[in-house]
Amino acid sequence: MRAPLPFATVRPTEDGRALVILDQTRLPEEEVERTLTDREGMAEAIRLLRVRGAPLLGVFAAHALAALATNRVATGETDPTRLRAALDEDVEVLGATRPTAVNLGWALERMRGALDEWSAANPGAAADAVAAALRTVASEIHDQDRRMCEAIGAHALQLLPATDGPVTVLTHCNAGALATGGIGTALSPLYLARAEGRRLRVFADETRPLLQGARLTAWELARAGIDVTVLTDGMAGALLSSIRVDAILVGADRIAANGDVANKIGTYGLAVLARRHGVPFYVLAPTSTLDPDCPTGADIPIEQRREDEVRSGMGRTTVPADAEVWNPAFDVTPAELVTAWVTDEGVRRSWS
Amino acid sequence: MRAPLPFATVRPTEDGRALVILDQTRLPEEEVERTLTDREGMAEAIRLLRVRGAPLLGVFAAHALAALATNRVATGETDPTRLRAALDEDVEVLGATRPTAVNLGWALERMRGALDEWSAANPGAAADAVAAALRTVASEIHDQDRRMCEAIGAHALQLLPATDGPVTVLTHCNAGALATGGIGTALSPLYLARAEGRRLRVFADETRPLLQGARLTAWELARAGIDVTVLTDGMAGALLSSIRVDAILVGADRIAANGDVANKIGTYGLAVLARRHGVPFYVLAPTSTLDPDCPTGADIPIEQRREDEVRSGMGRTTVPADAEVWNPAFDVTPAELVTAWVTDEGVRRSWS
Fold first, then answer.
1. Which residue of A has its CA nearest to B205?
2. What average pLDDT is seen over chain B?
3. Rounded Cα gap, residues A174 and A264, in angstroms
4. Longest Cα–Cα distance in chain B
5. SS3 of A261, please?
6. A45-49, A161-165, A332-336: which has the minimum mean pLDDT?
7. Which residues of B touch A238 (CB under 8 A)?
8. CA dihedral B293, B297, B299, B305 (to 10 degrees)
9. Which tens digit of pLDDT belongs to each residue from A91-112?
10. Which pLDDT score is estimated for B267?
11. Measured between alpha carbons, how far is residue B244 from residues A221, A337, B38, B223, B341 in Å?
């Protein structure tokens, strides 16, 4: 089953020499596509968050290496050795844009490793064959990401109630198509439900300070024709008191060995409200998010981000200079508050 | 006990002919005082939210009527009958600025009623005596508001732990000095504790969509030398998981006959978190907030506010045009989640 999306976060051009991205910094006000032809433009797109989201960064980086090699061949490069040396430079430059983005480094190394394997198996291959091999591996990485999203969605879809009325869902932050090369993680069952013609009503927390829920989740769901309503983070309690919500769907940045979940700040408060109101609380994430080396949530390091995201995140100063700011990026939801964890491998209801 | 504040939200000038207000629309970036001499400027100050907060609007309106009458006498008015007719116009113009602000209308009517009583008791009084009487009543209204704040603070102060380390408190929205003619309601025990030399650490939810916590609570506490840290509304759960918070202090817009509390949106979620973490949850409000005609919280009407507060509240559009917005101004916290209600009359621990 494929749920077609009316937008592409990243795609190579027909000739394979460039990438077209949806510039996420312009959302939700404008839908701007940018064509990236050189390495600096690609590195800048990552640095400026024109592309963002852990899975999407991996997919983007793979396509970027393939496009850069293809362009070199198209502009006259015929020496496979020089092509390989240029690729090393590309890996270095792109990898340095966001050093802590695990998927980015993983995809770059996987491209390089795959090329070395291919070259060993195809000694004396011409430069254009090398570039073609890189395009093939990038496509595989992208397809793998799409399959991961679809698998999470298919498993999670079974958890949504079979109801005549609309299925009502609350979500937080953006673990959607805009963060992946496919239909997203937390939002994937919604795209599949929509493709089946089911009626949906989605509530999206705006997710301060960076407003990924308002800017990105609301944009991609509305763009796909799904009914979406934005509320501020503090309104979730009033929502659960006011109407029946069938499920809360969130992503995860890391899942500890005991099932504790680190996710975007605000997730834990939602889980506490879900328990009080008897609403199922589902965590949807790729298997790669599971961290067996992290015994519990207490062992997950929590990134503290820049104060100005809270002080003046939307262009105007909203916090006085002599007040302090606390800005943790994530919180930890204990496993006991999670109804089920859904990965591409299936649904898990307990962790012991 | 009086806790001096380093700013005044509203005060008459020496000659009584004008009002000086702290322009709250310029906070937290600038501390701008405005001198208001005519009725239009005073009405505009209310309309543009340069003064806001239910108790403060009452105090402001009383001073405004007195200043306008005083100015008329100073510029040659000698006829008490014409002075009384002008006052009626003032009441009408100021009362029309925010028709649903109960304290505003209450103070205007109280001024008019007090003047009529005084005139009946002082037949043939000169115009300057009429103006002086109005100034006296306005001062009484202001003093009454100050006493209400101090009384709430004194009662609530007894609930804070006697600890050597700093007393750590979390609050939401602004029920502070900026909303009253005194030291505030929810924040009043903090000013009293500070005056006693106790160490405080206050966390203030920013309180989306209008950011009263970030803009106003953080400003007034920092201005008074109290250690204050702003966090986004979704961070409260992480805060309670991270450190020991001694108490959560919030105000109330209305308290039903069974103790259910309507307050700024986000309050209910805090109360649910407080229960989970064993943190006392205190509601601090004037006795006038109690509504015996409202049996339970379900009977309290909840104002839905304009979508653009969420869509573009800080100058930039953050919600796509084809997404809906839900913007309730208040939520209801059930009485069972409230540890104690503190009014100017005392501390109440149950409601049955």
1. A234
2. 95
3. 9
4. 68
5. strand
6. A161-165
7. 265, 268, 302, 328, 331-332
8. 120
9. 999 999 987 777 899 999 999 9
10. 98
11. 39, 21, 50, 25, 22
Contacts of B65 (CB under 8 A, 6+ apart): B87, B90, B91, B94, B108, B111, B112, B134, B138
Whether residue A27 and residue B320 make contact (CB cut-off 8 A), yes or no, is yes
Is residue A184 within 8 Å of residue A178, measured between CB atoms?
yes
Do B314 and A316 count as a contact with CB atoms less than 8 A apart?
yes
Residue among A43, A56, A52, A1 nearest A23 (CA):
A52
Name the nearest CA neighbour of A19 among A190, A139, A187, A172: A139
Q: Residue A336: how many CB atoms within 10 A of its CB?
A: 12
Residue in B208, B273, B325 closest to A229 by CB: B325
Asked if residue B4 has pLDDT above 90, the reply is no
- Which pair of structure tokens corresponds to residue B125? 């009084």
B318 Cβ under 8 Å from any chain A Cβ: yes
Give the span between the Cα atoms of A70 and A68, in whole angstroms: 5
* A209, A238, A268: residue with CB nearest B328: A238
Tens-place pLDDT, residues B280-324: 999 999 998 999 999 999 999 888 989 999 999 767 899 999 999
Separation between Cα atoms, residue A218 and residue B318, nearest integer Å: 10
Query: Between chain A and chain B, how many beta carbons pairs sit less than 8 Å apart?
Result: 205
Would the pLDDT of A351 be above 90? no
Q: Annotated catalytic sites of A, by residue?
A: 253
Q: Does A260 touch chain B (CB under 8 A)?
A: no
Closest residue by Cα to residue A242 from B228, B307, B324, B298: B298
Dist. CA B307–CA B330, nearest whole Å: 15
Q: Are B316 and A315 an interchain contact pair (Cβ–Cβ within 8 Å)?
A: yes
**Cα-Cα-Cα-Cα dihedral of B115, B116, B117, B122, to 10°?**
80
Q: How far is A189 from chain B (nearest CA, A)?
A: 19
Classify residue B262 by its DSSP letter.
E
